[in-house]
């Protein structure tokens, strides 16, 4: 939702100090160092919007403690008008709310062969980044947008003075990318990156810089540790072993029902779950045990960049079943069966014959 607040460049302060004074807003770190809170198992993620208590939580180098009186976001680099924006000034700008899945890529220290399902679906509220750029006026030489967080420290045995990521300017200028200060209608908590974090719907969470303090437009990619050493992977589409950055999310899903190992006391089984992709999911198929044919599930439309519910009802006899599901995105990309971080999800469950059913059930 937008606001009627008038806002002009006169409310913004020109950048006079280029020595990193924005980083003085960080009073320290809590927690210090790497922190992860794993999500609940898929069968517990039953709501369309994921609560904060059920959302995975990852901090790379420590959680910044922010002095609001000193907090500011610098916009500089290849722009006509370098700017400094305070939190109160940012909130005067017209805002919008977008629903988007939020997925963690997983550890960049391990091969991307395990599907971690660190995923949730959230409502973000904030100011579109391209609206800020209307004031800053990027120059034609600007090709990438670097973003700095207030956090610092060590990760994976390497030390960095900041968490820095980058976006191609085309993505940064898209309608969905924003400086968010609310999550699910509540002020963004400090441990979630508040007061402000970058939100890049459709891309992995590693690109969504927490405690954002500087946005710099540059002619090339960042040379920071989190763009060079970490969060790059072999491109599975390349026969030459080319490396690509961890940016857009490929099709993925998880089966919510039936849960792994559950015993079902009726032959009609409702299968459902969540599917997601940067470009949206248009098809989900399921495969039961040794069946030779994939069954097509119903896929609900996407809201913004949200995950999408899929469902399929099947009537089956008593026994133990192996269930697999796979998603296909709008651009025709299909989940791999195995050995990738987004490979198909599979569960086993059992159909029991209730006492009042004959053995031939």
From TrEMBL:
Pfam families: Oxidored_molyb. GO terms for cellular component: mitochondrion. One of its GO terms (molecular function) is molybdopterin cofactor binding. SUPFAM superfamilies: E set domains, Oxidoreductase molybdopterin-binding domain. It comes from the Eukaryota. Residues 65-224 form the Oxidoreductase molybdopterin-binding domain. InterPro entries: Ig_E-set (IPR014756), Mopterin_OxRdtase_euk (IPR008335), OxRdtase_Mopterin-bd_dom (IPR000572), OxRdtase_Mopterin-bd_sf (IPR036374). One of its GO terms (biological process) is sulfur compound metabolic process. Gene3D superfamilies: 2.60.40.650, Oxidoreductase, molybdopterin-binding domain (3.90.420.10). This is Related to sulfite oxidase and related enzymes.
């Amino acid at each position: 939702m937008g606001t009627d607040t008038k806002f002009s460049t006169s409310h913004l302060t020109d950048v006079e100090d280029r020595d990193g004074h924005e980083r003085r807003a960080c009073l320290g770190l809590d927690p210090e160092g790497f922190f992860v809170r794993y999500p609940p198992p898929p069968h517990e993620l039953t709501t369309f919007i994921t609560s904060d208590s059920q959302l995975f939580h990852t901090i790379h180098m420590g959680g910044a403690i922010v002095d609001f009186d000193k907090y500011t976001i610098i916009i500089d680099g290849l722009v006509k008008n370098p700017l400094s924006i305070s939190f109160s000034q940012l909130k005067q700008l017209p805002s919008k709310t977008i629903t988007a899945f939020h997925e963690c890529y997983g550890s960049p220290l391990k091969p991307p062969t395990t599907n971690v399902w660190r995923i949730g679906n959230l409502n973000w509220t904030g100011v579109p980044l391209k609206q800020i750029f209307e004031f800053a006026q990027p120059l034609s030489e600007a090709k990438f947008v670097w973003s700095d967080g207030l956090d610092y420290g060590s990760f994976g045995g390497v030390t960095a003075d900041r968490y820095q990521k980058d976006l191609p300017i085309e993505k940064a200028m898209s309608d969905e990318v924003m400086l968010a200060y609310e999550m699910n209608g509540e002020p963004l908590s400090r441990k979630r990156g508040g007061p402000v974090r970058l939100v890049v719907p459709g891309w992995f969470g590693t690109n969504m810089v927490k405690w954002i303090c500087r946005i710099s437009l540059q002619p090339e990619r960042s040379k920071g540790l989190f763009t060079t050493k970490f969060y790059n992977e072999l491109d599975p589409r390349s026969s030459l072993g080319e490396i690509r950055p961890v940016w857009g999310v490929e099709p993925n899903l998880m089966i919510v029902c039936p849960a792994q190992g559950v015993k079902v006391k009726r032959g009609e089984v409702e299968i459902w779950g969540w599917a997601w992709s940067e470009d949206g999911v248009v098809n989900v198929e399921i495969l039961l045990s040794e069946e030779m044919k994939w069954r097509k599930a119903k896929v609900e439309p996407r809201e913004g960049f949200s995950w999408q519910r899929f469902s399929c009802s099947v009537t089956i006899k008593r026994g133990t079943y192996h269930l697999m599901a796979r998603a296909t995105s709008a651009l025709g990309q299909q989940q791999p069966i195995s050995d990738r971080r987004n490979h198909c999800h599979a569960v086993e469950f059992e159909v029991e014959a209730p006492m009042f059913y004959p053995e031939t059930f």
